[in-house]
Amino acid sequence: MSNLSLPAAVTPIVLLAISNVFMTFAWYGHLNHKSWPLWFAVIISWGIAFVEYCFAVPANRLGHAVYSAAELKTMQEVITLVVFAFFSVLVLKEPLTINHGIGFALIVAGAFFVFHGPIG
Question: What distance in Å separates the CA atoms of residue 16 and residue 69, rounded to the nearest whole number?
């Protein structure tokens, strides 16, 4: 078996993507199970969120060697939007509208400015 390692700049992105899949299920997955008692949904969501933390904390710890905290947070938000868009359509069966697309694009535009040098 080969030793597969990712570049330092890619590792946090992969870990954040995995963590966001878990967190999206933790936060929104229970919406397909409205018959569950709320306390049960909270416990299940908390358990899923624990797994999310097992990826998010290393992503941020390792990522901070390459990226600033603001860059890591911005990356996390953009990844969250991408994961949520797929989850919303595929799992919740909710359509995305042009307004959602415009709003998401504005957030991505904000990310552009976080990752590029000072203006002026």
Answer: 13
Q: Exposed, middle or buried, 15 (CB in 10 Å: 0-12/13-18/19+)?
A: buried
Measure the CA dihedral 33/35/38/40, to 10°: -70
Pairwise CA distance, residues 76 & 80, whole Å: 6
Beta-carbon contacts of 20 under 8 Å, excluding residues fewer than 6 positions away, are: 52, 76, 79, 80, 83
pTM of the model: 0.85
The string of pLDDT tens digits covering residues 15-62 is 999 999 999 999 999 999 999 999 999 999 999 999 999 999 999 999
The beta strands (E) that lie in the chain are given as none
